[in-house]
Amino acid sequence: MIDPIVDEVRRIRDAHAAMFNYDLDAIFQDIKEQEKKSGLKFVSYPPRKIEPDKGPHTTGASISVSPGSNSI
Length: 72
Prior knowledge:
By secondary structure, this protein is mainly alpha-helical. The chain has helices spanning 4-19, 24-38. The protein is elongated, with a radius of gyration of 27 Å. It starts with a helix and ends in a 34-residue tail after the last helix.
């Protein structure tokens, strides 16, 4: 499936990266400079903490086994 919007974004992103010889540090610095020049306030949140597992998870499924059966 061809999406003209995605194609345009990819072309622009590639042209921007080519201006900096695809150097990620240089690209990042340019983006940060553009943020400063824009006058807008950019917010960054700290990463969310992942809670450790609190024991076994139950699925609610059960297995019936008749008395004296050797198989599940």
